[in-house]
Amino acid sequence: MSWPVAIQELIEEFQDIDEQFERLEVLMEFSEEVEELPVESWNNHNLVKGCQSIAHIEIEMVEGKVWMKAAADVKMVQGLQGILSIAVNGSTPEEVLELTPEFAEEAGILNSLTPSRSNGFRTMFDMVQRNVREAM
Amino acid sequence: MSWPVAIQELIEEFQDIDEQFERLEVLMEFSEEVEELPVESWNNHNLVKGCQSIAHIEIEMVEGKVWMKAAADVKMVQGLQGILSIAVNGSTPEEVLELTPEFAEEAGILNSLTPSRSNGFRTMFDMVQRNVREAM
Amino acid sequence: MKQDFPIFSRLVNGKPLVYLDNAATTQKPSCVIDAMSEFYSVSNANVHRAVHTLAGEATEGYEKCRKLLKQRYNAEYAVITSGTTEAINLVAHAWGKHNLSSGDVIVLTEMEHHSDIVPWQMLAEKSAIEIRYVPVTDGKLDMDAFEVALEDAKLVCVVHTSNVLGVRNPVEDIISLSKAVGAKVLLDAAQAVPHELIDFRELGADFMAFSAHKMCGPTGIGALLISNDAFSEMEPFMGGGDMIDTVTLEGSTYQTNEHKFEAGTPRIAEGVGWAAALEWISNVDLEAHHARLLSIASDVAEQLKNRGMAVYSSLGPGDAAVVSFNHPTIHPEDFARLLDAQGVAVRTGHHCAQPLMDKLGVSGTIRASFYLYNDASDAEVFLSGVDRVLEAMA
Amino acid sequence: MKQDFPIFSRLVNGKPLVYLDNAATTQKPSCVIDAMSEFYSVSNANVHRAVHTLAGEATEGYEKCRKLLKQRYNAEYAVITSGTTEAINLVAHAWGKHNLSSGDVIVLTEMEHHSDIVPWQMLAEKSAIEIRYVPVTDGKLDMDAFEVALEDAKLVCVVHTSNVLGVRNPVEDIISLSKAVGAKVLLDAAQAVPHELIDFRELGADFMAFSAHKMCGPTGIGALLISNDAFSEMEPFMGGGDMIDTVTLEGSTYQTNEHKFEAGTPRIAEGVGWAAALEWISNVDLEAHHARLLSIASDVAEQLKNRGMAVYSSLGPGDAAVVSFNHPTIHPEDFARLLDAQGVAVRTGHHCAQPLMDKLGVSGTIRASFYLYNDASDAEVFLSGVDRVLEAMA
Ligand SMILES: Cc1ncc(COP(=O)(O)O)c(C=O)c1O
Ligand SMILES: Cc1ncc(COP(=O)(O)O)c(C=O)c1O
Q1: Chain D residues whose beta carbon lies within 8 Å of the beta carbon of residue A74
Q2: Which of A70, A126, A134, D44 is buried deepest, with most CB atoms within 10 A?
């Protein structure tokens, strides 16, 4: 499968890692990539449901392009949000709707997480697409 | 362990049998050995409790010797009752109280039956001893 | 197929095992036994909400069972229980207690297993509910009487396939008639799922209960399938870990999916084993085997009749391959013990269906029940075993 | 001892497994795994009232589990359930419902597992029963408050050993104080029986609940021990096969022994597996291991404190080797995932004890719990794993 350049880079970065600990470290580094949704903006609408820990995601349209803000208490969830940001920020809504969460699997990010957390990634991914669809 | 002659013979008779089917056939033949307790005499007192099928046992003292009458709907239970009769009939109460149900094990009668039925034999054995004790 | 089942390499009383007690429980293929050993040897951990690798694998293994159940039977919800019995009790407590009240009517039949009678008697006693039993005539449900019994019924509980007679009840008619009067329907499918593939949603029942151990799966696990409709009317049954959302000293809130009804550490290894059984059975042509076994059972029934036995099973098309019979004078227990001496396992007794025994006018029957791995040679051994018994007891 | 447990030959994320999630569930020795495989491969059949050989062997195998339980714990009655949770729910339904009524008092504690809270909340709601929670102060039960709470109590339900803190409650005092006011006592011994041998009759409790899977036995099975006194006050809970004496359309009568509370096909293979585990553990010097593990856990706790962690377990004598802790800033989930990356399995979350979490003022903890097969090298790997986490997150 071919991916947008940013995602392709991300997949390669992860695939180069041999050790699980390092993979998680890199994942946490991606927490820097997400624009933080300030606590004041947390509400039931942007709450990620079915997630074990606290996570919020909000989608804005800036000049016709998707922009994501997010927050989470678990650093690795922030990392997943960072990766999602890279995947969607600056894309058109149509491009976002064409994406599938498989890229995270291909990168080995998902199988490195337990089912409940990788489900969490899918939940967040679905939420982003739903919000994008609503914003169109 | 040494047993009364009648029991010793019985043990040997069973030990000679190789095949389970024949062992059960011989067991059923022993149903002839028990004096039947007529249906009119069946009551709650002589009912064997905890037995899956119908079984009754009554102990009489005839000239100071133990005499057992019994009835059952399952032929193999009648056989067990026959074996019990051989073991106790004509003995003194003291002799009966000295007996243990192990002889049936030694003969390979008990392990040839499923637990619930071999428990049934023990139950009947205990009942005989209890009744003998009461009749002393 | 026998080579898939390690138990058939053993001898019973010196004879090769001929296992005809399948309605009580079925044997397990190697893949099921191995899946559980493998789980305990490689992935054993407690499930849910955990972040370590083993716990993830265990959760996945256990939840796979639920996923396969929902797929195979096309069910909205699949609650995992310890068996059919617990599944039916779950309905009585989680649905019955909250949706039935004094004067309401539950329809049962005279051919129910005790597991589909006693929970309702217990509920009825507490809440003054009326129970109506649809009579059995000539080994079949009296459908005219069923329609009469249905008046004002709120719940209909029927055994899909009888464990004594093998008869498959006309569940399609039962469900559509019940739905017409607005009654919920519970199917006791303990004997049904081993023999036919059921589309729960299409069939239209509200509850369907069955056990893994009767379909080549492990003991200690079963399921209750539930329709959307019925699920929304259920309150929690047992309380504990995993079924809650929040617990405070003042009170608790519950999960909204199946976990709401699965309190405590679930049957994890059993779920893994059942998943293996479900995968194994999905590669078996149930329909073909069913036809084959029914024909073997019908032959056996004929032969038994020829030998003077009373046969209670009618073995019509769709019925399970279960032959219940009695000899006019030989006690079932003697009969079965003499068969066992020849390596043949059959069951005797009331088969947890005393009301049906009362109806048949017997205290018990001998039951030979056939399953996938049984073949014509088993029937032959069984029949020659019967002949030897008849000879010995003549 | 690790060589007895096949799971320790696996790698997790490329590292040897260091399993410190024992309070959630324990690993299984080969003899337990093999006993179950062997059962399914050789003796599998349904139990009770059957006359064929396999059924006899299965009955013996299953009932052996009950026999061992009664012997080991010196109990009048041992009802086999699917686990601690079902055992406690059984008490709530079979005893609570029939012996408690509006205005009666149940005493619980703030350190109960959800399984010993939710069943009572459900019962209390239905029957207007008052629940009093004995507070936890500095990680210990407030015994003065306990005595106050005891006034007019009919039932006292206490966790023998806490799954979060490892603290062993003064159950001897709790029982004698409770008996003095005529209250029945239930012990949640899920975490106790793995660590100490309990003489149930001598201890004098009325009910004691625990799970096989926390003491090297299989999943899907547990027990409720019951005193003579309490047993005589119990009514059936679930209805079905095996628990009845007679069933007619008019009503049913029940068995008088433990089977009264074991409806349906029991957990047969699980019983066989648990029996093997009970035999295995009877050859283990629990007391010596307990001292050893407690000393390891205390060292670990010290080391964690030195590294700035908050440790909630006090690890006094008699307590279980459970270390609950938190880092001031690192989220427990991140912490546990980074440990898992190094092969170390610990649990995070509320450990099914939300009220205790509320009391501790946290939403969850990281919990490292030690068991028989753990040794000092596991503690070392764990601590160096912790150090790597601290470095990475600095
Ligand atoms: C103290 C305590 N009580 C009850 C339970 C519930 O046990 P189970 O989930 O096996 O029913 C557990 C374990 O989870 C426990 O640690
Ligand atoms: C028709 C039917 N219903 C219910 C049951 C009860 O199933 P289980 O004992 O597995 O709970 C059985 C089997 O014993 C059965 O044959």
Answers
A1: 331, 333-334
A2: D44
